[in-house]
Amino acid sequence: MSPAACRLRHGRASVPSSYYLLTICCHRRQPWLRKSEAAKLVIDAARWLETRNRIELGAIMVMPDHVHMVVQLRTGTLAGLMHGYKGYTAHALNRVLSRQGRLWQAGYHDSALQTEEALHQAISYCLQNPMRARLVEDFRDYPHWWCRWPV
Fold it and tell me: Strand 19-25 relative to strand 55-62: parallel, antiparallel, unpaired?
């Protein structure tokens, strides 16, 4: 494990009812999520977690090689949530993409969003990602996102 990965884990806490910005990356930053069916699967899996009251999904942006989510943790821990989410999506994506092997990089990045301003900034950061990557001029033109609130 890299020293940077250890720093991410230092002080990590799971607090039900708190909001988090979560980021997961494809193994070796491979663009496996560029296909529409792969991106849809990733979004649908997050929405399914909401139906099971594990999270309230605020926003999700599926980029070709990584995913950003803003979630409110409802039950369990971040580690348990991400373990289950990454495990399910890796298995399902490998099937959809007709591939085998590791799909996600180890770990994940999380940022606790402790104020309403931080929540708004995290949602903006998620949604503007395809613009920063110069994939589109307006994030609304990018097909692989969802947001709870009108934007």
Answer: unpaired
